[in-house]
Amino acid sequence: MSPLPPQVISPLDGRYRAAVTELGEHLSEAGLNRARVQVEVEWLIALTDRRMFGSEPLAPEQKAALRQLVDDFGQDEIDELATLEATTRHDVKAVEYLVRRRLSALGLDHVAELTHFAATSEDINNVSYALTVRQATLEVWLPKFTAVIDALRSQAADYRADAMLARTHGQPATPTTMGKELAVFVYRLERIRSQIEGTDYLAKFSGATGTFAAHLAAEPDADWPTVSREFVEGLGLTWNPLTTQIESHDWQAELYSRIAHANRVLHNLATDVWTYISLGYFRQIPQVGATGSSTMPHKINPIRFENAEANLELSCALLDSLAATLVTSRLQRDLTDSTTQRNIGVAFGHSLLAMDNILRGLGEIDLDRDLLARDLDANWEILGEAIQTVIRAEVTAGRSSIEDPYALLKELTRGKRITHEDLSAFVSQLEIGDAAKQRLLQLTPATYVGLADPLVGYLP
C-alpha cells in the first residue's frame, strides 16, 4: 500500500484507512472506472454476439483478452484515464477512449464503433453503480454486519441466564438477563439483514431519454428491449424497463434507508453497552500499552462504542441525504445525482468503521456477575409488580378479598427501598392462597426474570 500524502481531508483515507480499505476496491473513483470499463466491454461483446450490423462474434480468446482489461485494471489505467479526462472534461468519454485504445492494441479496430454504441453516459454509469454498490454491500458491508450479529449472538448465548436489574426510564425495573437483552438486538439486526440481502439492484440501458430512439434508428428490426434486458440481467442485475435518461435510483434509496436503519439499531446497541459499562455491568478488559486518559491513569474509556456512535451518525446523515436526493431528477435528467453518488463510499465507510469499533469493543468487555447480583439484591422493591399481580389473580380466583392490589403495593414500595425482610413480612400477612404465598416468599430479584433465558432460543 503506497503511503498517503499528509494532506488528505477525509479521516477515512487517513487515520482510519486500514478499517475501510476494502470498500475502495468498489466505491472509489477507480472502482467505478473499472466497472465502467466492464460495462463498455460487455456491451460490445453482447452486440457482436448478436451479429449486430454485420459484426461477427468475437473468438473466445478475444473475449478473454477484453475481459482481462477489467481484471488488470490498475494504476496505469487510473493515470491514463486522468490524462484523457483532462482533455475530454468528461469521465465516461475518457473511459470510452481508453477502451478504444485497448481494442486497437488487440487488433479489434473493426468493432471499435460498437464501443459505447447508442449509450448515453448514464447507461454506463447506472449499471456501473449497481455493480459496485452490490459488490460493496455483499462482499464488504454485509460480512462485517454479519460478524457483529454473530458476536452478539454468541454473547447472548453466554449471558442468557445472567439475571440483571432492568431499567425503564433509567429507574430500577423488572429484572431481565443480559443475554436476553443482547438477543433483542440480534433479532432486530437479523430482520434488517434479510431485507438488505433481498435488495434488487436495478439498471437500465435504453439511451438518452429511455426510449431506445438511437437504437431503433440504427436497427429498426431489432428487439432492443430484449437486448437491453438480457444484457442487464446477464450482469446479475434487475432490468428497469421504464426510465428517463437515468435509472430512477429507487433501489438505492431503499438500500440506503435500510443500511441507515441498521446503523440506528447499532447506535442503540452502542449507547446501551456504553451505559452497561458505566453501571459496571460490563468490565472493560485492559489492553496492553493502551492509555485511557492522558492525566488519569486508572481510566479505561469506552472509546470503541463512542467512536461507533459518531461514525454511525455521520453515515446516517449521508445515507439519509442520498436516499432523499437520488429519487428526484428534474424532467428527463439533471446532474444532482452525479456528485451525490460519489459519496456512497463515504457513507458506507463510516458505517463499516463503526462496526469495526463495535466488534473490537465487544471483544474487550466481560460481564461482572458479582455486581449484577449485588445490584439485584439492593432492589427488592421491584417485586412489587409480582406481588400485586399475584393478588389480582387470587382475587379473581376467589381466594382473596383485597381491594385495589396495585394501590396497596404502591403505598408500600413507591419511592422507597424495601428489604427482603420487609417484603417477606408483608407477603406473610397477605390474604391469598397458600400456594401463591409460598411462590412469592421464594421469589427473589435474581429469580424474577420470567422466561428471559428460554426467549433467547427464539433467535432465528
TrEMBL record:
In terms of superkingdom, the source organism counts as: Bacteria
Q: What pathway is it annotated to?
A: Purine metabolism; IMP biosynthesis via de novo pathway; 5-amino-1-(5-phospho-D-ribosyl)imidazole-4-carboxamide from 5-amino-1-(5-phospho-D-ribosyl)imidazole-4-carboxylate: step 2/2; Purine metabolism; AMP biosynthesis via de novo pathway; AMP from IMP: step 2/2
Concerning InterPro entries, the annotation shows: Fumarase/histidase_N, Fumarate_lyase_CS, Fumarate_lyase_fam, Fumarate_lyase_N, L-Aspartase-like, PurB_bact, PurB_C
Residue ranges annotated for the Adenylosuccinate lyase PurB C-terminal domain, each copy included? 329-449
What are the recorded Gene Ontology BP terms? IMP biosynthetic process
Top-tier EC class: lyase
Give all residue intervals belonging to the Fumarate lyase N-terminal domain: 14-308
Q: What is its EC number?
A: 4.3.2.2
Q: Which Pfam family is an annotated match for this chain, by its short name? A: Lyase_1
Q: Name one GO molecular function term.
A: N6-(1,2-dicarboxyethyl)AMP AMP-lyase (fumarate-forming) activity
Keyword terms, alphabetized:
Lyase, Purine biosynthesis
* Entries under NCBIfam families matching the protein: PRK09285.1
In UniProt terms, what function does this protein have?
A: Catalyzes two reactions in de novo purine nucleotide biosynthesis. Catalyzes the breakdown of 5-aminoimidazole- (N-succinylocarboxamide) ribotide (SAICAR or 2-[5-amino-1-(5-phospho-beta-D-ribosyl)imidazole-4-carboxamido]succinate) to 5-aminoimidazole-4-carboxamide ribotide (AICAR or 5-amino-1-(5-phospho-beta-D-ribosyl)imidazole-4-carboxamide) and fumarate, and of adenylosuccinate (ADS or N(6)-(1,2-dicarboxyethyl)-AMP) to adenosine monophosphate (AMP) and fumarate.
Protein name, per record: Adenylosuccinate lyase
Organism of this sequence: Cryobacterium tepidiphilum
